[in-house]
Amino acid sequence: MKLSRGRSQVAIPGPSIIPDRVLNAMHQAAPDIYGAELMSMTDGIYRDLRRVARTAGEVIVYLGNGHAAWEAALSNLLAPGDRALFVSTGRFTHGWAEMARGLGIAVDLLEFGFRSDVDAAVLTERLRADAAHGYRAVLLVQTDTASAVSNDIPAVRAALDAAGHPALLMVDCVASLGCERFDMDAWGVDVMVAAGQKGLMVPPGLAFTFHGPKADAARVPCRSPYWDWKPRLDPVVFYKRFCGTPPTHHLFGLRVALDMLLEEEGLEAAWARHRVFAETIWAAVEHWGQDGDLELNIEDRAKRSAAVTAIRTGPGDAKRLRAWCSDAGLTLGVGFVAPDADGDSMFRIGHMGHNSPPMILGALATIEAGLGALGIPHRPGGVVAAAAVIAAAQEADRGPPLSLI
Ligand SMILES: *Cc1c(COP(=O)(O)O)cnc(C)c1O
Question: Is the pTM of this model over 0.85?
Answer without folding.
Answer: yes
